[in-house]
Amino acid sequence: MATDYDAPRKNADDDDTDSIEELKTHRTDKTSSSRVDEDETDAAEGFELPGADLSGEELSVQVLPRQQDEFTCTSCFLVKHRSQLHAAQSRGDGQLICNDCAD
To answer: How much is the pLDDT for 90?
Structure first.
């Protein structure tokens, strides 16, 4: 049997179609009872994670300034050793890019 895919399809639900006025009242009922979307940051402020209070913690890491054999990548802004400088930097454009960012 051939099927005409362009013909409108009829479902069992089509027999029970409501009038436009009934559909409008259902729609207004659903929208009035639904909650207003909250901003994610506002909703997240109320959550308290266990063990998340780090106010009494101090860092024990010593920060050193950039050394003479290091450079700052202009793409990822990480300080890297000169051995990680991309080989194409000899063109003289002044952009220091690491091997990771050049790939």
So the answer is: 47
Strand blocks (E) in 1-103: 70-72, 79-81
Residues paired with 72 in a beta bridge: 79
pLDDT digit string (tens) for 17-42?
Answer: 567 777 777 776 555 555 556 677 77
Q: In the chain, what is the straight-line distance between the N-terminal and C-terminal CA atoms, in Å?
A: 58
Q: Where do the structural domains in the chain lie, given as residue ranges? A: 70-102
How many CA atoms, within 13 angstroms, populate the side-chain half-sphere of residue 4?
5
| Residue 11 banded pLDDT, cuts 50, 70, 90 | low
Q: DSSP 3-state assignment of 85? A: strand
- 82 three-state secondary structure: helix
Count of H-run helices and E-run strands, the chain: 3, 2
